[in-house]
Amino acid sequence: MNIENAKSQMRKGMLEYCVLLLLKQRPLYASDIIQRLKDAELLVVEGTLYPLLTRLKNDGLLSYEWQESTQGPPRKYYALSPDGERFLEELNEAWTGLSNTINYLKNVRTEFHL
Fold it and tell me: Would you tell me how many other CB atoms lie within 10 Å of the CB of residue 56?
């Protein structure tokens, strides 16, 4: 089994959750999202992020607003919608449960009885 492939699949599974966590703090421009994910050592390219943002917007979880920029054309800033906030709360609960399961399994001492 290829460990890099396994790690890539784990990152893909967490990306949506991580983006929503960032947008809960404040509206962000796509480049800002990429930089913050990079700062957290979750490397994402524009070709991965933009389709995700579009899907989340189409699902009603994000809204966006165009803001003028001093360095070029207007920028699209993404924010959580009310539905996105509720969805993030559900993801937080799911993450807590999953994290508890993983921590339990990492620390459990099993005995096999034959």
Answer: 20
